[in-house]
Amino acid sequence: MIVREFARYRFMREHRHTGARVSPYLDSELEPGDRRRLEEHLHRCPECRRLLETLRSTLEALLTLRELRHASVAPGVIDRLRREGSR
């Protein structure tokens, strides 16, 4: 029973550790030890893998917006938002 509780506690500690480091992980800013620790947890935790994939796909979508910013509709939309925001 104690072993099981300790394992659950350790998993939750790793869960919090991972959640706080997913963004630096994607940016390759983690030290090797933290990176290894995060990857080990990701291997066991489907919830954290979903978090990682969601953040990764969000970042990819945001990067595509850079490519679209020169579209003809964007300047008009941005000007309108600025006018409405200043009211």
Q: In percent, how much strand structure appears in the residues?
A: under 5%
The geometry reads as elongated
Parts with pLDDT < 50 across at least 5 consecutive residues: none
The number of E-state strands comes to: 0
Task: Give the overall pLDDT as a whole number.
Answer: 80
Calculate Rg over CA atoms: 20 Å
What about the largest sheet?
none
Would you write up a description of this structure?
The chain has 87 residues and is mainly alpha-helical. The protein has one domain. The protein has four helices and no strands. It is elongated, with a radius of gyration of 20 Å. The mean pLDDT is 80.
List keywords for this structure.
mainly alpha, 4 helices, elongated, 87 residues
Short recap of the structure:
The protein is mostly helical and 87 residues long. 85% of the residues lie in helices and 0% in strands.
SSE arrangement:
Layout: H1 2-26, H2 32-44, H3 46-68, H4 73-85
Helix pairs in contact: 1-2, 1-3, 2-3
